[in-house]
Amino acid sequence: MEALTPFYEVNEALVAMGAEKLNLCMQCGMCAGSCPWRIVDGPFNIRRLIRMAQLGVEGYESDDILYGCTTCNKCVLKCPRGVTIIDIVRAMRAMIAETGAIPGVLRTATGSVHSNGNPWSEPREKRTAWMEGLDVPTFGEGVEYFLFICCTSAYDARGQDIARAMVKLMSRAGISFGVIGEEENCCSESVRKIGDEELFMKMAEKNIGLYKEKGVKKIIATSPHCYYTLTKEYPEIGGDFEVIHYTQLLAGLLSEGRLELSSAFGEKVTYHDPCYLGRHSDIYDEPRALISAVTDGNLVEMKRSRHESLCCGAGGGRLWMETKPEWRFSDLRIHEACETGATVLATACPYCMSMLEDSRKTVNREDDIRIMDISELVLEAL
Q: DSSP readout, 143-202?
C-alpha cells in the first residue's frame, strides 16, 4: 500500500484544487474525439491527460501536453458523465504553477499582469493609448455603463480598432458610458486558465474593489473572455455586476431604433463563433442578428458553426504560445471561411481577431478575405 501513497496524494490534491469531478471520468473517449487537436493530429490528448491525473502520473508538464488545452469547452459539452474537464486541466496547471514550472512565455505574461496589470508586457500608462483622437468619457457618478476594454484591445494595434469602434457606436446611440482608465487591470481569465490561481484571486479582488469604489453597477465587455469571467467567476468572490457583451448591447440598440443603418454592407460575410461567447456563454443569436441586419441577410455559415465552431486556438493561454503551422486551428478556419465564398470573416473576440489575422497572412489568403469585428461592420453600415 505504501507504493500507492503518491497516487492518492496527487489525486486528492487535484480534487482539492478544483477537479472535484476528476474521478467521474470513465475513459469513454468522447472528449478526445471532439477535441480540435484530433483534427490536426497533434500531441495533445485530453483523455490521456485525465487518466494521468487520475493515476497521479507525472510527465504531463510539456508545453503541448498540459498546456495544449485551449479550454474551448467542446469536450465538456460532449461528456456523458458531466465531468468539468477544464477544471481538471486548471487544477493540474495550478499544481505545476505552485512549483514555478509553467512555460517561460506564460510566466512572462503572468508576471506582466502582476507588475503592469496586463499580460502584454506594456506599461500601465499605455492602457489608454487607444483613446488618442477620441472623446472618451470617464466613468463616474451618474454614468450608466462601465466600458471594460479587454487588455488585447487596449494594447494590441489591431485590437484597438475594436475599442475605438465601440466608443463611436455608443456615442452615436447616446449611451451613458465611461472608462476608468489607467487604474484598470486585466480581468485575469487567462491567468486562471494558465494555473496561477493566487494571482487570479489577487487581481479579481483588486478589480472588484475598484469597481465598487467607483460605483460600477453595469459593465459592457468587449471580450468574451472578460464577459465569461465577469459573469461566472467574479460573482463567486463578491463581484455581482450586471454584465453584457457588446453584441447583446448593439443588437438591442438596433432593434430599438437607437442605431440606424444608412446602407447595407455590400459584401458576403461569414461568422466565426468565439468559444467563450458561444460554447461557454451560449450567445449565438445576437452576433448573427447584427450581421444579417448589416448585410441585408447576406450571412453565410461555415460548415462548423455555433456549438460545433472550430476553436481559433488562443484560449487557455495559447494566445501567447507558439504553435507549429501544422497544428494551427486558425489556419483551417481561414480555409473554411474562404470555402463559403465570403469576402469578410467576422468575429466578436479580440483573441480570435489576432489569431485569424495572423493565419490569413500565413496561408496566403490576404487577397481573398478580410477579418472584421462585428463592431466594425456595424460602424461601417451607419
A: --EEEE--HHHHHSTTTHHHHHHHHHHHHHHT--EEB--TT-----HHHHHHT-HHHHHH
Buried b (16+ CB within 10 A) or exposed e, 209-234: eebeebebeebbbbbbbbbbbbbebb
| 319 and 217 within one domain | no
Q: Are strands 218-221 and 145-148 parallel, antiparallel or unpaired?
A: parallel
Which pTM does this prediction carry? Answer: 0.93
For residues 87 and 124, state if they share a domain. Answer: no
pLDDT computed for residue 63 by the predictor: 67
Single residue among 195, 219, 250 that ends a domain in this structure: 250
Would residue 210 count as lying in a domain? yes
User: Residue 236 is part of a domain; what is its CATH number?
Assistant: 3.40.50
CB 11 within 8 A of CB 304: no
Residue 79 confidence (pLDDT): 93
* Domains in the chain, number: 3
Beta partners for residue 178, in sequence order: 146
| 203 and 146 Cβ atoms separated by less than 8 Å | no
Task: Report if residue 198 sits inside a domain.
Answer: yes
> How far is CA 240 from each of CA 24, 161, 199, 210, rounded to the nearest angstrom?
31, 29, 20, 13
Quote the CA–CA distance of 4 and 248 in Å, as a whole number.
Answer: 52
CA torsion angle 241 245 250 253 (round to 10): -20
Angle formed at CA 204 by CA 200 and CA 206, multiple of 5 degrees:
120
- Cα 352 to Cα 319: distance, rounded to the nearest angstrom: 9
Considering the domain boundaries, does residue 296 fall inside one?
Answer: yes
Q: Averaged in consecutive runs of 10 residues, what is the pLDDT profile of the chain (382 residues)?
A: 46 60 84 94 90 73 81 95 92 88 92 96 95 95 96 95 96 96 95 95 97 97 98 95 98 92 87 98 97 94 96 95 93 97 97 96 95 96 88
Distance CA 380, CA 345 (A): 15
Give me the phi and psi of 320, to 5 degrees please: -100, 5
The boundaries of the domain holding residue 9 are 2-97
